[in-house]
UniProtKB/TrEMBL annotation, chains A, B, C, D, E, F:
Feedback inhibited by histidine. Its main location: cytoplasm. This is ATP phosphoribosyltransferase. Residues 217-289 form the Histidine biosynthesis HisG C-terminal domain. Catalyzes the condensation of ATP and 5-phosphoribose 1-diphosphate to form N'-(5'-phosphoribosyl)-ATP (PR-ATP). Has a crucial role in the pathway because the rate of histidine biosynthesis seems to be controlled primarily by regulation of HisG enzymatic activity. HAMAP family: HisG_Long (MF_00079). Keywords: Amino-acid biosynthesis, ATP-binding, Cytoplasm, Glycosyltransferase, Histidine biosynthesis, Magnesium, Metal-binding, Nucleotide-binding, Transferase. Gene3D superfamilies: 3.30.70.120, Periplasmic binding protein-like II. Pfam families: HisG (PF01634), HisG_C (PF08029). Its EC number is 2.4.2.17.
Length: 291, 291, 291, 291, 291, 291
């Protein structure tokens, strides 16, 4: 009997990053022009490209077994699904995105309460309504079909609730942020029945394991170098290796070869230190997966 | 005191056609990159570019005095506005668009009733729900964030309600249309208070007059020719002129010059007939406005 | 009974110019993405977009009743079709294109005879072979799949036979032209049986009449002006009007209004002359068709 | 003997508008890819595409007989040339462009004097230096290789002198304008010797005549209508025609046909008035040239 | 004396993949705009970019020593060349492409024999003719200048022979495949004389060795991990390493470090197994060449 | 107290290569649309994107602490800055660029002296003037706003001084090079005061160390293989390793594993030799940094 797992991947701004992440994890996906079912080199998988907004509904209904979508849209849809894991990656930075409450930069509004009786435009209707209800602020919230920032500038509403990673687009429209409504990032979610099916659950867990391994590898590198044996102990203290370093003897008995896995961002600080200690022949190489 | 009329024009697929129509009508609009208020050569007008979906709400609320949007979105929003006129133009053909109920080409569904208990995806949520309620058919209707045709192909829903001018995209996805849900075309709508303001109403009526004149001119041309005086009467019978033809004498007393305004599509039939009658020196010239 | 005429229009470099020419002639053609049969506002026509190279074959076989293609490809295919008319228009200039024999600018070849025993690359295989046979020059002619000019530069052949309007691309590759192989321009061709069918022949003739009228109008304009009555006779001599000018009286009995149809290129010479004679209020307007 | 006039046209932002203007004036120019001498349908002309900044130098030196460039670059180069005429057209609006002195929107600078001792970046080095010298303000002016607005934002200078038509880009960078340095628009300039050559001067004057005629026609239209004879006098008073209207009799002796040439922008006001007076069958048609 | 090898690489759809493959193999090729001879960092090579269809002819004639092209075009040209090796890579998948016989999805044709007397369009004229001759089926085969699938849809032919990797484009046109005409993939081919020249043969063999090494490396990765010494034997059985694994001691005598080279696609199955066995600190790294 | 280093990176043709080089070196830079200060994952850095032409001025003035620009623009600006290092990388090749003196291919000019009294166009005004002054040749040098090669073709000047890496663009315009004016490549330059500040100098030196390490790694690879122990000594002689090779024992005592770091370009020669010696399981892997 051949089992199949139906997986939904997000269309749009995260699409390319997702296809790349799966490729690094071991699944090569080809999006054919005019073909709605992308090819993948795994006969146990069927892939659907869906809008992030609709994903949670399809997973909850069982149309899909598993899907990737944002925390924001899971809450917006009130979907009853299993959150398997968080996946921190994005199209711009590696920061989680946030939905913010923003108003015109030259408006008198300084806090949510100042907006009582005003009009709020947003694509995240349900979450926004709940946000104001919980605060006991009476506002009119209406659905915005895109270009939400511009609506404040054009005088079509008084405030917006919009998603941003860095705040750049918000500022570029001359708006100011007066509150955070919610933080969000990508989640791997599963249908409840699929999660209770042992074959499907094992498959989902393996996919998650390899996705996490690929994400981790994006931030790490391998580092190899030769160093005098007598500085090894001192060097060990400054090297934040994932595992214990691999130390090998060299033909010259006074020297050893050392190999470590470390965060790439630490390398630019570490190399000058290692050179000061006498390390030589330092090479850094890239990693595909770190598990 | 200087009066101002706030007018909303539709962003997106109709945007270029609308800017062009206004230019022909006498208003040159410049959409500046990064500037939300387009320039227009009329100090009495302020222009906002809005999504067609949101236009009726803004007009109803009085944020805008007047706007152009589809009949479909006026109904979807249940907006209480004045419908000033219909404007028949489009991005592809000159046919009005229609929202159709479509299912997979190889599905067994033949009529709306066959969809009882099924899932329907659409961007026109309210109208679609009312359509099924009026027929007494119980279905689940859910909102689709675009690429609606693909959802049937991918098995994410059983049927869709989607807009089409020619049916081409529907067919290209292998779908079949089983009912018309509504016909729609562009309307000029006004806020009720604005319509009751005499200055604003006059301004709106003038804009409408010139828009209609420019639309009419797109389908008409001027035709001038010389013909023997003795065939004039016979020729008059086959020439479907807007006004009575202008007939002028020529130096040769046996000939006259005739000028008419006719539908461009009639010209290709008319010219061979006129030549058979002896007409000569036929020229056709374009028109900007016909009022 | 409803008759239909199947017409083939050329894909590729002439496509846009052809669609525009038909629009001016009275037929609006819409090329839908993913739809092989373009829409046209005439129920008696069916349109196919074909490669110019293949058109004559389809017309000869009766798959199409009528088509537009180059004289070159009619000869290359040795097609037995009716040549209804020539249509002088192009994507760059209004000169007919020519197939030329070209060699490297620094090669010793000066005339076709110098190429005896050499390799000639061309897309126009049959015509080229006949050209050399008629001259009694023994060469190897082989088919070139595009980018033919580059083949001389890269040393893949000794000479090419390639089409050009202005010679610019030939020169830009450092080649020199040593002979003209043939002149070519667009022809309207008809299937022999279709031409003998009276309904189809009438339809083809009407289409041709209007295409020619639209082509003629591209080079002509209408010119209107006021002039003193006493210079009219003198002015008449310098005005190369298509028909005799239309002269109308004005309220000032010393002046008349004169209207002529002339070649646009003549206007820039004529206007200074007319001004010298005392003409005033000269306006020029565009024409759609001149028949 | 064949005379030739060498004319320089501006590359870059005005290029397309210029080619179009010449086409309307009667000269069809083809810019061939890889060919530095554009084709033109006039054997007496040779065309060079030049940067506006360099044009005046080439005309002054006699490398070109005549050229189109901005007043700004004529002054910047201190060129000794004949200014034949002004040509009011642009890529965005029809307003003349202006070079403005701009500073950061949140800086304390309010007037040129506040910039004493500061750094000014500009592409218009000479004019800017003279501007400050004439005011007796001591500043450091340095040349900016493009993206000048951004330099204030990035803190690379204190103020800029930059060209703008509508101020939109200046504002979009958060800058404020504190003075106008100069107004500029396009000029037709001639070399002094060429201007003294009678054949060349005549040719230049003819080109100028037709360019001006085409520019004027862009803003005007022809208007024809039928009206009751008894309102004609009243209607005449509101019709701002270029020439006196052409009035023709119609078969119905109570009606006349009236034709006028008027500014397009006036049409939208005039038509409602004429309809109120009883005019009918109003048509508007486009013009190519008005001289 | 300096020897040179002339190599032809395919233009068009495989061009980018080929340039990348050579870069991985050690040859950096720069395609300069307007330069027909690409730069390469090897003075012993001269590179020509050719159409795949023409490559075999040039290699057979000795214009090129060696070239890359498809098996299909070698057969179509009946070229007498040395096939050095197969290179399995493509622009979409890694499957070999195939030329298929396809007909309209709603046609009655089910097998090649049903097409007797019909018209077949193809770009692969010779191979297609031979295919039908060998089967003893009498058909008219004619050359198609591209867009071959559309010809069935438009009724211009009854069947086509066209190349496809995944069948997607065939299906998207509503066609069905009724036979395979031939499988094809890329070959490295050599001129017979070049192959008999010892210097050239050695050079060709080295290029082939490194191309194959780079292709193999695309599918493989390096995997390193730490594992308890006592599971090593068991782990060895599930690890499909290219070579025998490299096992190194760690400071903790109960653990070893293991490094293997395996197919990337096997990793996603292997890692969960290894983790179950107790492996830790698993990292995967990319490879450039595997020989 | 938190220190900050202001660094200027070149906009334009080197921008992408520079961003990539910094990423490899450990600094991830995000250029946000509409944001002039790119994000970087180092709180001690502030980044400005500047034109290469203006960089040296900003570094000299202390507006920036450190910047990357070409030797050419440092000389052109006569800037008094510290040249920290050379960085050999480019957008096309890895050769340093050179400014050359070029004339029309069919002109009589053969050497700089032949240009006495002639006009020279260039973007590098100062350096060019000094070049001719030092040779004692009297010429008119004027500033060229881009498209300099075309100016010779169009007859606007007699010679140009223009930058080129490979000479391709020069030749494509039909020009010939008659002298080298200067060689140039990218330099890391520092402000004198910044260089004397110990914190800034240390920071600059670290950045330089890692940039150099990333550049070096672009040309090197890691190579691992197994070989019979008895050929090790012979193999050592042909392997140009950066460091001494790392040799490890394998379970088969007759074989060893050898790992070296070598120039990638040497690999294609070395691998066939190693295979001849009996090496097996050769793999090559990429490097990020080599220090």
């Amino acid at each position: 009997m051949s089992n199949t797992l139906k997986i939904g991947l997000p269309k749009g701004s995260l699409q390319d990053a997702t296809i790349k992440l799966f490729a690094k994890s071991g699944w090569k996906i080809n999006l054919h022009h005019r073909n709605y079912f992308p090819d993948v080199n795994d006969e146990e998988l069927t892939i659907s490209m869906c809008r992030a907004q609709e994903m949670a509904k399809y997973v909850e209904d069982g149309v899909l077994d598993v899907g990737m979508t944002g925390k924001d849209w899971i809450l917006e849809n009130n979907s009853d699904v299993v959150e398997v894991s968080s996946l921190v990656y994005s199209k711009v930075s590696n920061r989680p995105a946030r939905w913010v409450l923003a108003v015109s930069g030259d408006s008198p509004y300084e806090k949510p309460e100042d907006l009582a009786g005003k009009k709020i435009a947003t694509e995240l209707l349900g979450v926004t309504k709940r946000y104001f209800e919980e605060k006991g602020i009476d506002v009119e919230v209406f659905y915005s079909w895109g270009a939400t920032e511009a609506k404040v500038v054009e005088g079509l509403c008084d405030a917006i609730v919009e998603v941003t990673e860095t705040g750049t687009t918000i500022k570029a429209h001359g708006l100011k942020i007066i509150d955070d409504v919610m933080l969000t990032n990508t989640r791997l979610i599963a249908n409840k029945d699929s999660w209770n099916d042992s074959w499907k659950r094992k498959k989902i867990e393996n996919i998650n394991l390899l996705l996490q391994g690929a994400l981790k590898a994006e931030k790490m590198v391998g580092l190899k170098m030769n160093m005098p044996k007598d500085v090894l102990e001192k060097a060990m203290k400054v090297m934040p290796s994932l595992n214990s370093p691999t130390v090998s003897d060299l033909s010259d008995p006074k020297w050893v070869s050392v190999e470590i896995m470390i965060e790439e961002v630490a390398v630019r600080e570490l190399i000058p230190e290692l050179i000061d200690m006498g390390a030589e022949g330092i090479i850094e190489y890239p990693l595909n997966k770190v598990i």
